[in-house]
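Milestone 3.1: sequence recovery, worked example.
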């Protein structure tokens, strides 16, 4: 272990945290954004859908860019765009300005998400043990901080730009300084050379991980978009209590990710993914049958503990599956983050209106259980690129002679 890797890990974790803050500040102030620009209820879904669609475009573009530009440079220059676009959302006055700011935010987020996870996968390879969950724990911490700052802005009835400006003014220079220590994994180049320059991402091998990523974000968007309405309208809670489930979900997500790497090192990625899927399915089941608000809160707590491990381990598995083309695999896999986000909220809303919201919660429960079918995709894979040997499990690498 070197100081270079330690600084690289700390700076990348800070980048995940900054992104968590920025995204939370945007999504938690959507009602204020709607009021500021006079966006109608009919038009709002189009604006909201444009962000993940453009983020998917940004992620696909990143797959091509990393052939010529290091992921660290893409991350260094996409994150300021995200922060400045957030400020633009708060400072604009006309709807066209909102559209431009959200478009810039979406495209830059796609590049940022892909490049962040590329660096996370390559750093985990350099460390020789599971650290991917710790980066996503930093994102969860940033989300909690951003949601808290948004609450302060809403409580004091601050203008959006007044809420956003101090955050951007602090985080932007701090991020630019921290980006000096990003680490592009030199070992990845050696692995790629050994695997063969012609190595490509075979989509049928990546498809199970894409499905798991989609399911994870369907579950996540269900909680973020419907937990408050479900608690208030279905379980009869007060309006104040209805705001609590998402905060509980974020806290338990943070806790689960903070200790998740230890579980991967001890039990292996397959066991952790299976356990997370089962816990998440139990959470949806508890929410669906809850007789009251407190039992419903227990269900959302279980959801945070279960879903939190799926996304980081999916990125890590893609890196192991394609060691000589991990950047391309991560960029392609990242697109299904946004696919799940686009599917989840409308799916639950449509089922809730046509059937019942209790019944709607059963659908993501079943989808999460499908993860069990694909759990073996998180195991070491036979070397399809010419070695004939299996790659070591993360848990086994962590027990190497260096004791890391």
């Amino acid at each position: 272990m070197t100081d270079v890797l330690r600084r690289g890990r700390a700076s990348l974790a800070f980048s995940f945290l900054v992104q968590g803050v920025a995204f939370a500040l945007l999504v938690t102030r959507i009602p204020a954004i709607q009021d500021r620009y006079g966006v109608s209820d009919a038009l709002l879904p189009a604006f909201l859908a444009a962000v993940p669609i453009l983020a998917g475009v940004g992620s696909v573009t990143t797959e091509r860019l990393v052939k010529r530009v290091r992921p660290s440079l893409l991350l260094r220059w996409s994150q300021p765009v995200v922060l400045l676009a957030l400020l633009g959302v708060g400072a604009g006055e006309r709807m066209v300005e909102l559209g431009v700011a959200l478009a810039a935010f979406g495209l830059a987020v796609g590049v940022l998400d892909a490049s962040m996870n590329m660096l996370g996968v390559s750093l985990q390879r350099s460390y020789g043990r599971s650290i991917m969950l710790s980066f996503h724990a930093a994102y969860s911490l940033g989300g909690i901080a951003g949601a808290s700052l948004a609450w302060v802005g809403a409580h004091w009835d601050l203008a959006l730009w007044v809420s956003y400006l101090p955050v951007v003014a602090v985080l932007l220079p701090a991020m630019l300084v921290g980006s000096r220590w990003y680490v592009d994994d030199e070992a990845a180049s050696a692995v790629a050379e050994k695997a063969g320059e012609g190595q490509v991402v075979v989509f049928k091998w990546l498809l199970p991980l894409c499905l798991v990523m989609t399911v994870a974000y369907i579950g996540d968007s269900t909680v973020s978009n419907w937990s408050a309405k479900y608690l208030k309208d279905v379980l009869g809670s007060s309006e104040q209590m209805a705001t609590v489930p998402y905060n509980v979900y974020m806290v338990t997500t943070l806790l689960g990710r903070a200790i998740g790497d230890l579980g991967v090192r001890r039990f292996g990625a397959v066991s952790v993914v299976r356990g997370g899927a089962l816990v998440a399915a139990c959470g949806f089941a508890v929410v669906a049958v809850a007789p009251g608000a407190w039992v419903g809160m227990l269900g959302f707590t279980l959801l945070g503990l279960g879903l939190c491990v799926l996304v980081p381990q999916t990125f890590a598995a893609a890196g192991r599956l394609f060691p000589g083309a991990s950047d391309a695999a991560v960029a392609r896999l990242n697109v299904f983050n946004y696919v799940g986000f686009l599917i989840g909220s409308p799916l639950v809303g449509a089922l809730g209106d046509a059937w019942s919201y209790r019944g709607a919660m059963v659908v993501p429960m079943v989808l999460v259980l499908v993860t069990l079918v694909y759990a073996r995709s998180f195991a070491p894979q036979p070397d399809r690129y010419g070695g004939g040997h299996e790659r070591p499990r993360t848990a086994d690498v962590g027990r190497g002679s260096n004791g890391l």
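The mean pLDDT is 88. The longest helix spans residues 95-127.
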